[in-house]
Amino acid sequence: MLTDSFDRIHDYLRISVTDNCNFRCSYCMPEECHSFMKQDQLMNAQEIEALATIFVKRGVRKIRLTGGEPLVRKDFDKILQRLSALNVELLITTNGSLVHKHIDSLKKAGVTTVNVSLDSLKPTAFEQLTKRNVFEQVWLNILMLLENGFRVKINVVAMRDSIEHELFDFIELTRNYPLHIRFIEFMPFAGNSWSKNKVITAGEMLTAVQANYDIVKLKDEPHSTARKYKAIGHEGTFAFITTMSKQFCGECNRLRLTAEGKMKNCLFGKDELDLLSALRNGNDVEELILQSVQSKHAAMGGQFEKGYQHTEATQLVNRSMVSIGG
Ligand code: SAM
Ligand code: SF4
């Protein structure tokens, strides 16, 4: 088992399959010339399978494919197919724009839950956020996922002066659709112009929702970062991911692999270990994985010790979100 020095067992691996993306969300992809990794820097399908197999051997039971946008990768279906043989829970986080081309392969690989990111229900605001005019396609794809029996979670990055206009629209969406909306507090990464003033906390959003709806607290899944609620009588649920205002590091079971095969033991950590080079050179990958797990900080990669209100984005050392893999 992958147990760290705080007795946390790590059984969940998030693999970024590319740092490329067909959207340009400013909170994720830095505007100033984000240059994508070259093809030979990326793990190929076989290497992803080989590294994932080592993690599985050491106790990983759940793998999420992410990016960048995982579905822009030409051999995505092949990667999925290889990982489906590993006998783990397979998940994907996507911007939803290309889902219609991969529905069959998601089904074939046994994926049952798909997380789709959608920050606005208004086509114009959607285009401003993503710099792409494809709201309609994303919405149709969400419906397609539901029609095909997938459980669909909707990730909404909640930013002050923006989410306030649509908070209730998202709650309304759960009235007739069995969708699971997750409001994510805005997090700081390289180049995303984060400031504490742009963070709207889960507490603030919850107070606003409570004033307008009768809601109940639901049981949270083990290790889940989301605090779940339901408006009474609605088909779907909503939740808050409180990374900034109330951290959940004590229960963390996650490890990450970037698209070029660097292992990160925390989303906010600056330390990385190059598993892909080790694999290519025939070195001991398992030993590096254990080393990385052992060196994991107690919380927030050791970088937010005083809480987000006292954090200066410029003092944090990390990559952009798009190149980590969210
Ligand atoms: N392209 C896919 C997508 O958009 O779902 C997968 C990669 S994206 C980096 C993964 C998740 O990270 C998305 O739900 C996105 O909204 C979220 N994300 C990106 N930057 C963020 C930030 N600064 N704060 C909070 N969430 C963020
Ligand atoms: Fe692309 Fe997802 Fe980042 Fe938006 S959040 S730029 S869709 S990787």
Describe the structure in your own words.
- By secondary structure, this protein is α/β, with parallel strands linked by helices.
- The chain has a single domain, classed as TIM Barrel (Alpha-Beta Barrel), CATH 3.20.20.
- It is built from 10 helices and 12 strands.
- Strands 7-8-9-6-5-4-3-2-1-10-11-12 form a 12-stranded mixed sheet.
- The model has no long low-confidence stretch (mean pLDDT 94).
- The structure holds S-adenosylmethionine and iron/sulfur cluster.
- The site of S-adenosylmethionine (SAM) has 20 residues, from β3, β5 and α10.
What is the element layout, followed by pairings?
Elements: E1 12-16, H1 45-57, E2 62-66, H2 76-84, E3 89-94, H3 103-108, E4 113-117, H4 123-130, H5 135-147, E5 151-158, H6 167-176, E6 179-185, H7 202-212, E7 215-217, E8 226-231, E9 237-241, E10 254-257, E11 262-264, E12 273-274, H8 275-280, H9 285-294, H10 321-324
Helix pairs in contact: 1-2
The structure holds S-adenosylmethionine and iron/sulfur cluster.
| Class by SSE composition | alpha/beta
Biggest sheet, strands in spatial order? Answer: 7-8-9-6-5-4-3-2-1-10-11-12
Number of domains: 1
- Proper CATH architecture: Alpha-Beta Barrel
Task: Kindly provide the radius of gyration, computed on alpha-carbon positions and rounded to a whole number of angstroms.
Answer: 19 Å
CATH class call:
Alpha Beta
For this structure, what is the CATH homologous superfamily?
Aldolase class I
Report the biggest beta sheet as strand number plus sense, adding barrel if it closes.
12 strands, mixed
DSSP summary: helix tally: 10
- The percent of residues in helical segments reads 25-40%
Ions, cofactors and other ligands present here are: S-adenosylmethionine, iron/sulfur cluster
Low-confidence stretches: none
Number of strands: 12
> What is the overall silhouette?
globular
Strand content: 15-25%
Order of SSEs, N→C? EHEHEHEHHEHEHEEEEEEHHH
The CATH topology turns out to be TIM Barrel
Distance between the termini: 24 Å
Mean pLDDT: 94
